[in-house]
Design a protein that fits this description.
790 residues, alpha+beta, 12-stranded mixed sheet, 6-stranded mixed beta barrel, 24 helices
Length: 790
């Protein structure tokens, strides 16, 4: 009982220590409980979503020119495969994006539409209906991501080929639900699907193949793919993948966001432990005489250590428990924010086990740090305590720094510098913490800047520069008439006459196989002036037997510059190419190759480029120009779109979340700096009580002394901010490159300059200045009379 009385006395006397540690523990517990819960629950939700849609071992979207024949032929071929246990083949279609309006906005990406079959696809759906969901005629189900990117809700309308549909709900989609997919999905009633399928103005028709196999060979998916390719009329894989690929692709962006948030939480925990150590040592120093008296009246060193430890353990326990309860309100927000990036609906709450684990871990860490730093109590004796007392600070022999040598500086500035140098060990903690927080804030701001400009994203992620794309969209890409291509060239020629055109280039994008690996292939008729990022090594292809690989494809195929590889497209025979360089592209998670247009024709004889890209001269009003071109030339077979708007849909969705994470990092930085400055100011004023009174005796006013305190912490926080900026310059690029390697990009930069580093440095300095100025009002309570009475 006596120990608890001592602990209670210490808590009352050192309320500032308790308040700071409580707030820091609350913040850390709040973040850890929230982030860890979402991380744990996200994997469960993804696996549940995959089970709900009855996804088997491997799935394909297969482009076909003649739907019904392929439907029958593909089923027969799969039946002949002995290790195929079960399979499902369904039909789907893709309308021209220009013929689809979601709300008032024109569709910017490809949309795959299927007939709704609740007996096969038990999607989790967000709708206004409480009863069992039934999709009626004239209703449509959209992917969850459309709710955010097109700002629509249940009850709004969707126009498909001139037919109006009412949005009945939004479903989660683990396969194509991420905004990085740039491919959307929708479901309509079976009768509406047949009506849409019978119309001419379609971008393409596809078969959805879902296969369950019993096979020991890990590459059995490739063998099944070969079976599908054996069906005559096959045009190429639109999408193919296994459960593992679906899981990794769906959680790529969510895991990136959660990793950033977890980094902030762990950094906050580390800072809390540093502050705790400093608080324990300062508490012992400030209570030196009191602790010596306790020993004089019979308390043992062990009992006193327990009392001091309990002071912080109890505060930490209360803070961590409060943070765990507060996370109940934060978890749904973080969960919804993160899971929408995977195309999933958040459904979960704080796990009791997770909350207890975080509270226990934090308490154990606090106990350990407190125990290690209370060993100093063993050396306290009544005689040493009484003789030690409180030593003066400013007039100790360490202050042999004449102020006259700094006469060029204002007096208050000189005194602030002298105070910092006197207690430099005390301010090292604030410098280090400020540096770490500034680094994290600068890094988060750099992430936000990467996604802030669509054109910058296009360049960094390996896309060409393009103001407008004009495509001829036939039912069968292998059966394009010369008249159609001539019409496309005539349209481009007319545009060149009417507008200021800088560059026109042709492009083909398709799926192909390299050494049995699915890759995205890009073919260009020129590489000059189209804005592609320069190869990491080597050069772009020049001849029809050359290709450039991405580092991801090079690693998968174990090929390098100078090696020979075999590429295959559809039914055509494989063709040999020579690797001339390594170039990056984020498309398909970095699984990309680049070749010349002649190389594409060599790989697939008969394929012609039905896509033209135009780059206008500087100063052109691109949106207005694209609108005029769409109005003049777009019809059933010609599709016109603004390339940056298409990619911008993906970029904006990710940027919105990254900006929010950046805001969280700034808010966390401000809160931690304010708390730590509050504690250090209280400790400094306690230690310098006598010196403040002496300064008042010689004529300094309370306002002047408060100004010195504020300047002191402003200089320290500025030093930490500059150190954090230096840290960002040293390791920032390496860290962001490491992160984006998972996206297939191995060369990234924060592009850090003074303008980018200034906001975080100003933030920490301003918060430290304001916090110190507010806390230093205690200076008014110090009087010379009190000093004389002591």
């Amino acid at each position: 009982m006596a120990i608890f009385k001592v602990t209670s006395s210490l808590l009352r006397r050192q309320k500032a220590y308790g308040v700071t540690i409580f707030c820091l523990s609350l913040i850390v517990s709040l973040m850890l409980c929230s982030v860890l819960t979402v991380m744990q629950r996200s994997g469960v939700l993804l696996h549940e979503a995959i089970e709900n849609i009855s996804m088997h071992d491997v799935m394909f979207f297969v482009g076909v020119p003649e739907h019904d024949d392929e439907f029958v032929r593909l089923k027969d071929n799969l039946l002949d495969v002995g290790y195929v246990e079960d399979f499902e083949v369904g039909r789907c279609l893709s309308p021209l994006p220009s013929n689809v309006f979601i709300g008032e906005q024109e569709l910017q990406e490809t949309m795959i539409i299927s007939a709704y079959a609740p007996d096969l696809r038990n999607y989790r759906i967000r709708s206004n209906r409480d009863e069992l969901f039934v999709l009626a005629d004239g209703e449509v189900l959209l992917q969850l991501i459309y709710e955010r990117t097109y700002s629509v809700e249940v009850g709004d309308t969707v126009s498909i080929n001139g037919h109006e549909f009412i949005i009945a709900g939004f479903f989660e989609d683990p396969i194509l639900g991420s905004p990085t997919a740039t491919i959307g999905r929708a479901y309509v009633h079976e009768g509406d699907f047949e009506k849409l399928y019978g119309e001419r103005n379609l971008q393409g028709t596809f078969l959805f193949v879902n296969v369950q196999a019993d096979h020991d060979d890990p590459d059995y998916a490739k063998q099944i793919r070969n079976v599908i390719e054996a069906s005559s009329g096959f045009l190429g894989m639109f999408i193919s993948g296994s459960r593992l690929i679906v899981i990794s692709n769906a959680m790529l962006v969510p895991n990136l966001i959660l990793a950033l948030l977890l980094s902030f939480a762990l950094l906050s925990l580390l800072i809390t432990l540093f502050v705790l150590r400093y608080a324990v040592l300062s508490s012992i120093e400030g209570s030196f005489v009191t602790l010596g008296v306790f020993k004089a009246v019979g308390f043992t060193g062990k009992q006193i250590r327990i009392a001091v430890m309990l002071q912080y353990v109890l505060v930490c326990l209360m803070g961590s428990v409060a943070g765990a309860f507060a996370s109940i309100m934060l978890i749904p927000t973080i969960g919804e924010l993160v899971m929408v990036m995977a195309g999933l609906i958040w459904n979960g709450r704080l796990s009791v086990y997770m909350g207890l684990m975080v509270v226990f871990a934090m308490t154990l860490l606090i106990c350990t740090v407190s125990m290690l730093n209370t060993r100093k109590i063993k050396r306290i004796s009544p005689i040493r305590a009484i003789s030690f007392g409180r030593a003066p600070v400013y007039f100790a022999r360490r202050l042999n720094i004449p102020l006259r040598r700094l006469a060029v500086l204002p007096l208050h500035f000189r005194m602030s510098l002298k105070q910092i140098m006197t207690r430099r060990k005390q301010y090292v903690l604030l410098v280090c913490i400020t540096a770490l927080l500034t680094f994290m804030a600068i890094f988060a701001g750099g992430m936000s800047r990467i996604f802030s400009d669509v054109r910058n994203v296009l360049h960094v992620f390996g896309f060409p520069k393009s103001d407008v794309a004009i495509m001829y969209v036939p039912q069968n890409p292998l059966d394009i008439s010369d008249e159609a291509i001539l019409m496309l060239d005539e349209i481009v020629a007319e545009i060149e006459e009417q507008y200021s055109v800088a560059i026109v280039f042709e492009m083909i994008t398709t799926w192909m196989l390299i050494e049995g690996v699915d890759v995205s292939g890009f073919a260009y008729d020129t590489f000059d002036g189209i804005g592609l990022i320069e190869p990491l090594s080597g050069r772009f292809p020049i001849y029809d037997n050359e290709v450039t690989l991405s580092p991801v494809v090079a690693a998968l195929s174990e090929k390098g510059i100078g090696d020979r590889i075999y590429l295959r497209f559809g039914e055509f025979e494989p063709a040999e190419f020579i690797v001339t360089g390594m170039a990056e592209n984020i498309n398909n998670l970095g699984r990309t190759i680049i070749m010349t247009m002649e190389g594409a024709k060599r790989l697939a004889p008969g394929v012609v480029p039905f896509e033209r890209h135009i780059i206008f001269e500087e100063g052109t009003d691109v949106p207005a120009t694209v609108a005029e071109i769409k109005s003049a030339y777009e019809h059933d077979d010609i599709f016109v779109f603004e390339f940056e708007v298409l990619v911008g849909t993906m970029v904006d969705s990710i940027a919105e979340v990254v900006n929010l994470v950046t805001g969280v990092s700034y808010a966390l930085t401000a809160a931690l700096i304010a708390l730590i400055t509050f504690l250090l100011t209280i400790i400094a004023m306690y230690r310098e009580y006598a010196d403040i009174a002496v300064f008042k005796a010689v004529g300094f006013t309370s306002w002047q002394l408060r100004l010195q305190f504020a300047l002191r912490f402003l200089l320290v926080s500025l030093s930490g901010g500059l150190l954090g900026m230096g840290l960002s310059l040293l390791v920032g690029d390496a860290l962001i490159t490491f992160i984006f390697r998972f996206f297939g990009i191995s060369r990234m930069s924060l592009n850090l300059g003074p303008a980018e580093a200034l906001p975080p440095i100003l933030l920490v300095s301003t918060v430290a200045l304001i916090a110190t100025w507010l806390v230093s009002t205690r200076v008014k309570r110090v009087s010379v009379r009190t000093l004389i009475s002591e």
